[in-house]
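From the shared-data thread, chain only:
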Amino acid sequence: MKAGVSQAPGDYVYFKSQVPLHKISIGNKQWRYYDFGPKSVPPLICIPGIAGTADVYYKQIMSLSIKGYRVISVDIPRIWNHMEWVQSFEKFLDTLSIYHIHLYGTSLGGFLALVFAQHRPRRVKSLVLSNTFLETHKFAAAMPWSPIVNWTPAFLLKRYILSGIRDGSHEPFIADSIDFVVGQVEILSSDDLSSRLKLNVNAASVGPLSLSDSFITIMDLKDQVSERFPGARRAILKTGGDFPFLSRPDEVNLYLQLHLRRVGVEAQLDNQPGTSKDDGADQSTDDNQGGNNFDSLPGQRNDGANDGAYQPKTSGQNGDNNGSDETKSSGPNTDNTSGSVLSSEDIGIMKEFMAFQLLVQASLFPVMLQHQMGVFSVSCKMLFNV
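Structure, as tokens:
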């Protein structure tokens, strides 16, 4: 699907009418980003993959900002190596006067989030990773023509990137998410695509992190990533395709909200969502296996013990960690002897999650009914020798 207002989803058109697009030049890099939600809340910064832009997280921006969270979604600017990414992203944060951040990265964006967390541990307070990886060697081996990527025509780069999206028939909501991403790829320039492919194939791997596993959530169960962070939370997405943040936004947004609460980010519902100060930026409105599992009740592990995951505050999430690069959980709430008393906001989240599960079960009811009717029909034929 080609990008265009006439073909864009209605909620995306509404998003563009409400949330301004910011463009700011820092050095020789231009950053294109959305910034929405209370500015007093530490932001969740969303970093897309090769085929993504800042726009692909519009459903997260709209949903979480209403709940009192600040969400920043960025384009990956024209950056050609990983240390350049670390330095450029840090300058971007400094320009916005942001120090402590929470990162949500998908695919290449997840890898870049890990690289930044490795080299700037004081700034990154938590990570949410989806469909990501820990090293780039396999991508380099699969792309032997990477040395000439800078001279490759844009239409060939787009064809190569889109070939990585799963082909075949899809459920309507997955097909719509693919169409939206394809539309975003169409607006990217040859230099944009070349730089992202370079980041994806330049030899690099994620080293040790100072961040505790308890401040990491993994939204899929890739063996490499889950083995590297055995203590990370697992958010199981049973369906959703390559872009669950578009195809399953309610589920993804709920997991993001649970993650932010678990790591001590407090929503500011009294503040209306808004945009950041101009700061010299141009604005445009055109343009259950192992570990901890979110399937268990908030504040409880699968073994029935209370791990304090949903306490409002944890140590190391606000302030400078007293010079320490490592962030540690504060552990169970000693003020609550039973460990089971929940705040009204916790109960609200639980109700929302339970309602979501009921909706999923309701959507499967017609399929189950059809199956049972088929079994009944076969049984009658066998019984009466029809």
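The first strand starts at residue 21 and ends at 26.
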